Amino acid sequence: MSNDERELTLTRLIDAPRENVWRCFTDPELLKRWFVPRPWTISEARVDVRPGGTSYTVMRDPDGNEYPNSGVYLEVVPKERLVVTDAYSEAWKPSDKPFFTAIMTFADEGGKTRYTAIARHWTKEDTEAHVKMGFHEGWGKAADQLEEVARSL
Amino acid sequence: MSNDERELTLTRLIDAPRENVWRCFTDPELLKRWFVPRPWTISEARVDVRPGGTSYTVMRDPDGNEYPNSGVYLEVVPKERLVVTDAYSEAWKPSDKPFFTAIMTFADEGGKTRYTAIARHWTKEDTEAHVKMGFHEGWGKAADQLEEVARSL
C-alpha cells in the first residue's frame, strides 16, 4: 500500500522565530497554551523530548472530561525536526492501538518559520477517520494558537 | 491490556564474549550465518545499526522462495541493547502490518554472555500467532546457531 494514501499534511508559515516555535513544542507550559483548539484545554503535559522519551498530555473538553494521550519520541533534531508516535505508550511498550506517527519539521523562510506536520497512519481507514475527526480544522486551529504563543515570546 | 500477555521471551547463556555476540547481530555477513534456522538461509542482509536505521533481510526457504523483511532500529546501545520493529519499513514510514518489536539485551555473566530477546506485539492474537509460527523453536534454534558463530570468531 502506498504511503501517500495514509498521509495527512498541514503546512504553515508561522510569523515567529524558529527558536520560539521549537520552545512551544518542547516546553510543557507553552505546549499547554496552544496544543488543542480552544475551548478544549490541556490539563497536564509532560514531555521528555529525546528519542525514546515519553510524551504525555491530557486533553480536557469544555465539560471537564479528560482524555489522556501517550506517545514516544522517535527522532529529535533540536529546532528542526520532531517525530513522535502513539504506537508506543513508553519505550518500548506497544500501545493498544498504533494510530499514527507525526513528523514535524521547522525551517527558516523569509524571517518566519515554515512549520510542516505530516501525520502517517498504518491504515487507510485510520487516515480517513483522522480526517473525519477534524484533522485539518483541528491542527489548523492549533497552528493559529501556536503562532499566537510563539509570537508572544 | 497488559503488556505481559503480548510478550514472548527467549533467554540464553551464550558461551562467547559479548563483543562477538554483538558483532553477530550487527555485521551483515555474520548475521547471514545464524539469523534463520537452517535449512532456511538469509540470501541478503543490510543493516544500518543506528536509531532510525533500516534492517533489511531476505529469508530463503529450502525451495528457493524468498521472504523479504524490513524494520527500523529504535534504540542502539553498543554491546548492550538493540531494539528493532517491523512497524516501520524505513524511518518513518508505517509498514503494512505492525507485528512486533524486538528488544535484545546482552550482559556479561560468568565469562559468558546472557542474551535475552523480548518480542512485544500490538495484539494478543499476533502474540499467539507468533507462538504458532514457532517463535520458541525458531528463535531457540537461531540462538544455537548464534552461539556457534560467536564462538568461532
Description:
The structure is a homodimer of 153-residue chains. Chain A contains four helices and nine strands. With 153 residues, chain A is an alpha+beta fold. Chain A is globular, with a radius of gyration of 15 Å. The relative contact order of chain A is 0.24. The model of chain A has no long low-confidence stretch (mean pLDDT 97). At the A-B interface, strand 7 of A face strand 7 of B.
Please specify the SSE layout and strand pairing.
2 copies of one chain form a homodimer.
Chain A lengths: L6 E8 L3 H9 L1 H7 L6 E7 L6 E7 L5 E12 L3 E5 L2 E3 L2 E2 L5 E10 L2 E10 L2 H9 L2 H18 L1
Antiparallel strand pairs in A: 1-9, 2-3, 3-4, 4-5, 5-8, 6-7, 8-9
Helix pairs in contact in A: 1-2, 1-4, 2-4
Summarize the structure.
2 copies of one chain form a homodimer. Chain A is of the alpha+beta class.
User: Average pLDDT across residues of chain A?
Assistant: 97
β-strand number of chain A: 9
Largest sheet of chain A: 7 strands, antiparallel
Kindly report how far apart the N and C termini of chain A lie.
Answer: 43 Å
Overall 3D shape of chain A: globular
| Helix percentage range of chain A | 25-40%
Classify the oligomer.
Answer: homodimer
Order of helices and strands of chain A: EHHEEEEEEEEHH
User: Which spans of chain A have pLDDT < 50 for at least 5 consecutive residues?
Assistant: none
Structural class of chain A: alpha+beta
Strand content of chain A: 35-45%
As a whole number of angstroms, the C-alpha radius of gyration of chain A is: 15 Å
Number of helices of chain A: 4
Largest interface: A-B, 24 and 24 residues
Give the spatial strand order of the biggest sheet of chain A.
1-9-8-5-4-3-2
